[in-house]
Amino acid sequence: MLRGIAEQPEETPRPAPRQISQERQKITGLPLYFQGFLSVRHSRHQEFREYWTELRGTMLFFYDDKKAPTYSQKLDISTLTSATNVYPDENGSAQFILMLPSGELELKANNCECGKEWKGFILTVTKLSVPQDASLLPGQLTRMHEVLEKEKKRRITLTDCSRASLNRKSPPSSTLTAMPVCFYAVSRQEATEMLEKNPSCGNLILRPGSDSKNYAVSIRQELDAPCLKHYKVTSKGTSYIIELERQVRVPSLQDVVNYFVSQTQGNLKPFVI
Prior knowledge:
Helix 2 packs parallel to helix 3. By secondary structure, this protein is α+β, with helices and mostly antiparallel strands. It folds into 2 domains: 17-156, Pleckstrin-homology domain (PH domain)/Phosphotyrosine-binding domain (PTB) (PH-domain like), CATH 2.30.29; 168-263, SHC Adaptor Protein. It has 5 helices and 13 strands.
């Protein structure tokens, strides 16, 4: 009698690198300039902790795992004042410190070459200049110059969008720290202009509603022709209701944004300058 072979439990499929990259792009809304493992600590009294780290725009995003779609921490380094030289430690790793108005951030890379590369890209995007470092290889310098041009274009777009939103109103909520990155305190007309003039920044804006008590979502999609739509979002206690044919209730404004992104399978992207 033949005996059957017991079935092995199926492994949970791991997301493909491209899929992970697309998810992170949706969440951060910023261009990816450099990535790799970095160990981080905010104080000498703490232990270093290793993260998969991405440099997007002038932000550092820290992921607990290389394949995690969502970051666990982020840091704005746009106000960087200086960075120390890269120096090796007793284990062969390479350390350097970022000097920020909020304090120091110690970073540790696997080796000196990797540490100098990280420092070079960070200085490129924050100072808008490729550092004059003789230890950097020609290929590294070429990539830094490419990133520099991308960041300059992003800054120009940022300036254009800032001009479009000079007459900002106060948002209905005072909890600014909880606002999604695509929230702009602009009128319906201003939101429309921002979406039309800067399609590379994204196509979804969260803004105050016309009554200054609730919110609205403005989107622009390229269908048969460019299509602009506006949706009302009503604040109800601790929830928010998206006014569609069938109302959708979500717990936060970030979930409002996430709903539109997920329902369009990523075709809608938060507008970030």
